[in-house]
Specification:
Length: about 450
């Protein structure tokens, strides 16, 4: 009954919102990410831990839905997560204030339920992109709304959440997702070609042409070229990955092998939610945490794939097996060499994992205002968890892991990680900034 009442009021409230009852933020003082709850005592009581958990629960639902419906490889999943988290962020800050909305200028009455708005926004985006999951998503929305008191605040929140979701859906329409982007494999020294064991074509090449969420273009932060085949740096990179990244006969320690496997797939959405819960984040802070992290990682993978398309460098497994063709007297061919991990089907430079890692850590340090990120991250590959106190600890591991796994050169990792940090720093100067506080509640229509 509660869900039907909320949805029956949607048309009326959306119409009211569209007709001008949305309030604009008024000038005031800036609020930091760690500041206490803002004005509106009665509203704040309803918007406590329960509302912050609404964001966390729906990002968990998004993660499960994306995994079940899209079966994405890790880079793709962050794109979907970014769509959901930006819609949730706009829905929440459009009511709560605190932070500048993402590419939007709409506001809702302060008395609307931001928890209902968050749930409605996530539901709408996921239902649009994954219609097959509609029954499960509808049931999840019913459960979320059952935790919120009936009435005009809930109805307004649901309506505003749908409005925020529709904006993101429209904003990302025809953004290049899934487009055909050819990359002809050329069997020349230094040039990428399909790798064993599957010898699959370039996977998800469209990511390198996807319209970014924060950056101006996919190539805005494209770094300079990788080391030349005949350079000393190239020979050093190849020797390291050959010695430490092999499946057998490697110089890796057991701890290094564990790090390589641990970093393969991580539950980063769960880590963000855990951080927000342990640190007592409110709903606006929590929505901002997810949105900043996911959009920065999405634009990082776009940047990495742009470099892969542009430079097209061969992977270590090819480079080591065919080192007798590279013209470098300091390299030695090993035609039977195999990496510890299966090599993904795309070029070496840049490393997607390392680029995303740098962007994630720089986004978090920018949002949190400290290098102490305090993240408990579980690996879905190994089932183990690690605690990263500081950003540099994660950056170190994500760079090392791809070398020790035998699938990237250190240069591809280090340049990628630095590129990710630069692009996230640039993005945070434009997006997710503290906004002037709004002056008191605006009456519901």
């Amino acid at each position: 009954m509660r869900n039907r009442r909320a949805w029956s009021a949607t048309r009326t409230v959306v119409a009211g919102l569209a007709c001008g009852v949305l309030a604009l933020a008024l000038p005031g003082t800036h609020a930091s990410a760690g500041a206490g709850r803002t004005a509106g005592a009665a509203h704040g009581a309803e918007q406590g831990e329960r509302s912050a958990s609404a964001v966390i629960e729906w990002m968990r639902t998004a993660d499960a839905t994306i995994d079940a419906e899209a079966h994405p490889v890790p880079p793709e999943s962050f794109i979907w997560e970014a769509y959901v988290s930006t819609a949730v962020y706009n829905a929440v800050v459009g009511i709560e204030g605190r932070f500048a909305p993402y590419k939007w200028d709409q506001r809702a009455p302060r008395t609307a339920s931001s928890a209902a708005a968050a749930a409605s926004a996530a539901h709408q985006v996921l239902r649009h992109h994954f219609p097959g999951a509609a029954p499960r998503l509808d049931a999840a929305l019913t459960d979320s709304l059952a935790k919120i008191p009936d009435g005009a605040a809930e109805d307004a929140g649901v309506a505003f959440g749908k409005l925020a979701a529709d904006h993101i859906i429209d904003l990302r329409r025809d953004d290049g997702r899934g487009a055909s982007v050819p990359f002809p494999a050329r069997p020349h020294p230094g040039v990428w070609r399909p790798t064993p064991p599957g010898h699959e074509p370039f996977a998800n090449a469209w990511i390198g042409r996807l319209r970014p969420l924060l950056l101006d273009s996919p190539h805005q932060f494209r770094p300079g070229p990788p080391p030349a085949l005949r350079s000393a740096r190239y020979a050093k990179d190849l020797a390291e990955v050959a010695a430490y990244g092999g499946r057998t006969g490697s110089h890796r320690t057991p701890e290094q092998t564990d790090t390589a496997r641990y970093l393969t797939n991580l539950d980063l959405q769960g880590a963000l939610g855990d951080h927000a819960t342990r640190h007592g984040f409110g709903i606006a802070e929590t929505a901002r945490l997810y949105a900043a992290a996911n959009t920065a990682q999405t634009d990082a993978v776009i940047t990495a794939w742009d470099a892969k398309l542009h430079y097209g460098t061969w992977r270590p497994v090819t480079a080591i097996r065919e080192a007798d063709t590279d013209g470098n007297p300091a390299t030695r061919a090993d035609p039977h060499w195999e990496p510890l991990l299966v090599t993904p089907a795309h070029p070496d430079y840049l490393s997607g994992h390392a680029t995303m890692g740098g962007a994630l850590m720089r986004a978090l340090t920018g949002v949190l205002g400290t290098s102490r990120v305090d993240l408990h991250i579980r690996s879905t590959t190994t089932g183990t968890s690690r605690h990263y106190r500081y950003a540099h600890e994660y950056d170190r591991d994500v760079v090392d892991a791809r070398v020790w796994g035998g699938i990237h050169t250190r240069t591809a990792d280090e340049v990628g990680n630095a590129t990710g940090r630069r692009l996230a720093a640039w993005a945070l100067r434009k997006y997710f900034r503290p906004a002037p506080l709004r002056a008191g509640p605006v009456p519901l229509p």
